[in-house]
Model the fold of this input.
Amino acid sequence: MSDTHSPTLSWRTLLLLLLPPLLWAGNFIAGRAISAAVPPVSLSLIRWSIAALCLLPFALKPFLQDRQHYLAYRWHILGTAITGVAAFNLLVYWGLHTTTATNGIILNSFIPFLVAIFGYLFYRQTLSATQLPGMLVSLAGVLIVVSHGDLQILLTLAFAPGDLIIFLAMIFWALYTLWLKAIPAHINRTGLMLCQVLIALVFLVPLSVWESQTATIHLEDTHTRWILAYIGIFPSVIALLAYSKAVTLVGSVRASVFIHAMPIFGSILSTLLLHEVFQGYQLIGMLTIFSGIWLANKKIT
Done:
């Protein structure tokens, strides 16, 4: 199994690859904004319940048509539902309660390497001559952004218990990416996502009941409800469908490298939504990250 084929990316495919990290960056900001009002399991349950309702009108038909295919690939579908839908964001939301956003971004940036390592160890995937250097360059750009261009900040970072939780989430996402690639492209991705979300909800409901014994959810504020609507639609339905399609088109390693764009989009969103000043180090980091992404996706002649 190889993941090294590197055709030139079309503009449509490029947009498809950039959309998920943009929407997921918004998810990190939104998740932090309501962490005090909505505990992690409840947030995940509400998120995927909204996603299921949004998917039903146009996913039910392909979901029913492909049900025999779901049985044929049941272990891959079950695995992707648990790792990428149920567990990943639940662990991220949980971890962000006990660690910083900066640490979370750093850990998130190890996903492309985990995809490459697991792909090599378990699926005999190999890297092209440009993919590993490209991942390293884009990782350097991420470190520039999260350290504010100051090496001393990186050297003095302290890691909290939540970092282990978030790192576990990154392992789950790497497995999700690899298993997703193994599900054939002829299986409709919209119907597949509905299947994955429904499986995830089965796991989340009892966890939510357990969480309700010790945590309280507060939905009185209109602002909180709008944020939940965003989380349930954009980073859940739209981003996950785009990522699934992208993995099918360009492979797991190439698609995962674009996750390095998340801190850049996070900086842009913070500037636009929180009126933070866009700094020079962010521009340098942005150029470095996208240089690495370009290198990792460069066609070898």
In short: The chain has a mean pLDDT of 84. Residues 28 and 129 are 33 Å apart (CA to CA). DSSP finds 14 helices and no strands in the chain. The two ends are 21 Å apart (CA to CA).
